[in-house]
Every structure is written in C-alpha cells, then in structure tokens.
Amino acid sequence: MPERSSGILLHITSLPGTEGIGTMGKEAMKWIDFLQETKQHLWQILPLGPVSAGDCPYQCFSAFAGNPLLIDLALLCADGWLSEDDLVTPSHFDTRQVEFPRVKSWKTGLLKKAFLNFGEDAKFPLPGEFGAFLDEHSWWLADYALFMVIRQDFPGQSWMSWPEKLKRRNPEAMQEVREAHKSEITYQVFLQFLFFRQWKNLKNYANSRNIRIIGDIPLYVAGDSADVWANPHLFLLDDQLLPVKVAGVPPDYFSATGQLWGTPVFNWENLRQQDYHWWLARIHFNLKMFDQVRIDHFRGLEAFWSVPAGEQTAEKGEWVTARGTEMLDMLRNQLGTIPLIAEDLGTITPEVDQLRERFNMPGMKVLQFGFSSDEKNEHLPHNFHPNTVVYTGTHDNDTVWAWLQAAGEKEKKSAQRYLKNYHPKPVWGMIEMAWASVAATAVIPLQDLLELGAGARMNIPGIAEGNWGWRFRWEQIKHKHREFLKEITEKYNRS
To answer: Of the residues 276, 332, 336, 363, which has the fewest C-beta atoms closer than 10 A?
Structure first.
C-alpha cells in the first residue's frame, strides 16, 4: 500500500510579499513552515518557466529555464548585488493580484542592476559555483540565452517570423549574434544562475522539513520557444518551419468547443529515431528539480488530439497514436521506478489507463466532477483506487465555494447528500472527504481551505487574459484553518 500523505496546491506567484509577485525568498520559506506546522508533506506548484504572452505557466519560452520574476530581490541584497534602497517601490503593488506588466518592468530594471554589480564585483565569491552551473546546464542554456537575446530585436514576433538565417540557425549568423551580444547573452545566463541557485536553496529547505515538492510538466511546449527553435525536427513543422498540426483537446467539461492550445505536436517518429533523448532529458531534469512530477495531459503520451493549423477551435481534430510507452519503458530502465503523477482527466480510453498502470503511476480524481452523474462516477471516493491523487479542484477549476453556488440543482443536491457525512461547512466537507478517501495522496488548492469564491480562481480555460494572478495574504489564514488541517490530517492518517 502506498504511504498516505496530503498537501496543498499553491503556485509560487500566489505567495505574499512586497515584490508584487510571489518569489523564492522568505515568504516561500514561511509557507513551508506553515505546511510543516499543519502536518502536510506535499507542496504542489505549477510550471516554473519564463512565461510568454498571457502570463500562462503552461506557455513558456523554455521547457528548462526558470522564470526570472520569481527571483527574490531581497536575497540579492544579502548577496551584495543590490541595496536595500533599490527595493523601495515607487508605488505599492496589489497584494491580491499579480500586476504582471508593472512587476516585470520594475524587477527587470533591478535584475539588470544586479547583473552589473555582479560583473563589477572584484571580490565576487562564487566563481566556482557559477562555473559549475554553466557546466551542468549549458546543454540547454546556450540555446535559450541566444533565443532570448535575438527575441529582443524582434519584439512581439515569433521566431518563425525571424529572418531566414536566424530562423534556421545559420551557423555564421549565430556566431555573429554571440559576438555582437556577449553581455546580453551573459545576462540571460546570469538570470538562470540566480533562479536555480535560489530554487535549490528553497527545495533543500522544504526537504529538511519533510516537505516534498510536486512539480508540473506541460506535455507540450510553446511554439514560440527555444525548444522548438533549437529542435524543429522533433515537431510536426512544414518546410517554412510553421506548425502543420497543433495540440488541444476536444470539447469536454471545461469547454464546449474544446481547448485549442496552438502548440505544435511532436514528431514521434523523429523522437524515436533519437531514442527519445529530448523527452528523457526533460523528465530527468524535472525529477532533479522536484521530488515528484505531474505530467499535464498525460493522455497525450498514448494518443493526442491533432488539429490542423489555422483552425479557430479544437472541434475539428483527430486522435493520433503517440509513442509514450516506448519512451517510458526507456525511462523505467534508467530509473527503476518512475515518480510521476499522470493527469488523466478528460477523454480517457482503456489504452490510457493501461499505459498509466503499466508504469504504476497514480492518476487524478477531482471531487468537483463527482456529482454530475450517478453513484458509479469515477470521481466519487467510494470508487477510488488507492494509487490515486485526489483533489477538490485543480488550477483549471473554479473554487469549491463558487462551484457549489453555480452547480445545477440536481448536482448540488447530490453533493450536499454526500457531504453531510463529513463536515457541516460544505467546502470543508469536501476537503475532509478527500482526506478520508482511500486515495494515497490528497491535495487541495489553498483557495478551498480558505473557502474563497470565484474571485480567487486561478485560471479559466479558453480565456487568454486575466488569469494566473491570484495571491493570498497571511491574514487570510486564521487559527481555525490551521487547526482544521492538522485535525483531519491526523484523523485520517496522513501525517
């Protein structure tokens, strides 16, 4: 039987702090202390990459790089690369929502100042550490830094619209960029050095307090990314390096017209010919960063929804078989066991279940989905298998409070009938139901512990703007929240 555990889903951007966005500094460590105090052992986060337009962590400029906005500037003061005066903001940031454009503008200026101080510091104490970072990460970092520097010359343009010599990575053109933009390239490397240095310290802090961090891998990478630019042969692109087919999912619970992500789909045959090196490197990389990793849209490793490029919705697509079994077989041969969580929501076939079970990966259940049909619904706890991660909702769901308010009468009555056996407060009843279930792992968004409404929702699928910004404030977490979490964790043997 797998060990019973529990934890909270909270992206780093949602942490409190004075920098307008959650960071990897003292507030993140305070959050880890809260998890330890309430007897939790898991902290689940969203992808940490540098976000593109829309600020979506599932659409990043790299599958490997970290988001510079998550760098804690106060820690740079401790390093001597910034001063306390630098951190005085011209006007206060919103403590309830991330103001992404303002935060980016302010932090970018200070990160550039830190870089100048880093380069001018004759007593720089970390040459060995910086060199070791370059040795460890150059296999992806060199392309990423080059990509980000070239992007600055073509603002608002995808790399697919760059001049041919840059789009096709002409060797002479690449060398010209390296020579003409040495400082800018080094700056991009410096940002990643800071990110991974702070992340390593934060993860060590979590692990020292018996908190394991669950990371998140989007199945696909953004078309406008260093990954596709540097590896076009691994994606289905035409001779102009434009996507032939793009990814998404057909109409489902979240959207009547499906979700059209617009990301290029993989060329699985070419991946196979190179022994899935890119995919295996990606998983190894993430398993080094995190204690466990959730693969978003896991079903795409068995078969993926392929939509002709140019379609306006995801309705006109087809299922195409992938080669995830071969790739995961190779991974298991390398690792023995595979500490991955399969996000297996949506249209799931017996073949997808067989793939997940073949590698003994826990799947996901979402309690909000449990009351829309009958007692055979797979998202109801009495139908769970122990090798499961149960959630009240995910980053794509509304909060439980808002869901209950908006649910149809039949669905609401079904939920109320089920919840009355747990806790008189319906949202907490849902949480206790998750903790009481046979699922080995139970995770809730912090918004549900705090019984927050729709204004605290993280993401509305299919809506490009206005998502991902929610932040909490410490004063929202009361004594009652701490005690409830500790009580149910002890009561249901998850501590």
So the answer is: 336
Asked whether residue 420 is domain-assigned, the answer is yes
What percent of the chain stands above pLDDT 70?
98
Structural domain contains residue 75: yes
In which domain, by residue range, is 428 found? Answer: 5-125+194-221+263-303+318-491
* pLDDT computed for residue 122 by the predictor: 46
Whether residue 165 lies inside any domain: the answer is: no
> What is the SS3 string spanning the chain?
CCCCEEEEECCHHHCCCCCCCCCCCHHHHHHHHHHHHCCCCEEECCCCCCECCCCCCCCECCCCCCCHHHCCHHHHHHHCCCCHHHHCCCCCCCCCECCHHHHHHHHHHHHHHHHHHHHHCCCCCCHHHHHHHHHHHHHHHHHHHHHHHHHCCCCCCCHHHCCHHHHCCCHHHHHHHHHHCHHHHHHHHHHHHHHHHHHHHHHHHHHHCCCEEEEEEECCCCCCCHHHHHCHHHECECCCCCECEEEEECCCCCCCCCEEEEEECECHHHHHHCCCHHHHHHHHHHHHHCCEEEEECHHHHCEEEEEECCCCCCCCCEEEECCHHHHHHHHHHHHCCCCEEECCCCCCCHHHHHHHHHCCCCEEEEHHHCCCCCCCCCCCHHHCCCCEEEECCCCCCCCHHHHHHHCCHHHHHHHHHHHCCCCCCHHHHHHHHHHHCCCCEEEEEHHHHCCCCHHHCCCCCCCCCCCCCECCCHHHCCHHHHHHHHHHHHHCCCC
Could you give the residue numbers annotated as active site? 296, 343, 396
Has residue 368 been placed in a domain?
A: yes
Q: Output the pTM of the full model.
A: 0.96
What domain count does the chain have?
A: 1
Q: Which residues of the chain have pLDDT under 70?
A: 1, 120-127, 253-254
